[in-house]
Amino acid sequence: MKSNIRVIIIGILFWCLLPLPNKGEECAEAMKKIKVACIGDSITFGARLEDSNRFSYPAQLQVLLGDNYRVENFGIGGCTLIRKGTPNVWTQIVKIAESNPDIVIICLGTNDTCGGTRACWDHKNDFPDDYRDLIDTLRTISSKPVIYLCAPSPMVIETSGLDSTRIADLKERQPRLKELIAIIKGDFYREKYQLYRPKYTDVK
User: Fold this and answer.
1) What does the alpha-carbon distance between residue 11 and residue 180 come to, in Å, rounded to a whole number?
2) Contacts with 141 (C-beta within 8 Å, 6 or more apart), sequence order
C-alpha cells in the first residue's frame, strides 16, 4: 500500500514538472487559495473588539477555514447598502473586484436603519433594488464568485458602554432592522439567492 502511494505521489510531481502547454498554470491553479471577501459594516470590521484582526468574524472565519482559504475583511464602520447612505458599500466595489474573490459574503443593513442627520431610513424603499443591484454587480467580477447573503445581526441594547441617547436610538431602530431582515429572508430567499438564515429568538 505504501509503495502504491509513493508511486502516485511521484507521478503527480512528475506531471507537474513536465513542460506541457499551460501545465504550469494548471498546477498553480490547483494550489491556489480560495479567496473569500467579507463585505459589511462595523460588525464585519470588528468594532469594539479588543483586536479586530484576531476576533472579527472574518478573522475567526479564516481560522475555521484553514490555510486553503484567504479571507479578506472589507468591513467599514457606518457602511450602508443603499447608495444614498454615507459611507456606502458602492465605494468599495472596485477594491472588492480587484481581490478576485471566489466567495463573497454580504452582511449589511444595520446602518440603513439610521434616522436623524444620516436620514438613511428615509430611503428604505431603495433597499431591495439596491441590494439586487449589488448582487448583480458582484456577479460581473471576472472570478464569478459564489455570493452569500447574511441577515444583519440583531441590535444588542445591553452592550456595555452605551449611554441613554444611544440606547434610545437603537430601540427606535430595532423594528426597522427586523423589517429589513424580513425583506432579505423573504424576497431574496424566494428569488433563490443563497442565504444564511440566523436562528435568533427575536427575529421571526
Assistant:
1) 54
2) 96, 97, 100, 101
Q: Residue 160 in 3-state DSSP?
A: coil
Q: Per the domain annotation, does 192 fall within a domain?
A: yes
Q: What does the pLDDT look like over 57-94, one tens digit per residue? A: 999 999 999 999 999 999 999 999 999 999 999 999 99
Q: Are 141 and 83 part of one and the same domain?
A: yes
Q: Which domain holds residue 59?
A: 33-196
Angle between helices 127-138 and 164-183 (to 10 degrees): 70
What is the pTM for the complete model shown? 0.77
Total domains in the chain come to: 2
21 prior amide bond cis, ω within 30: no
Residue type, 74: F
Spatial CA neighbour of 82 closest among 25, 37, 126: 126
- CATH assignment at residue 182: 3.40.50.1110
Q: Which helix H or strand E contains 54, and what residues bound it?
A: helix 52-55
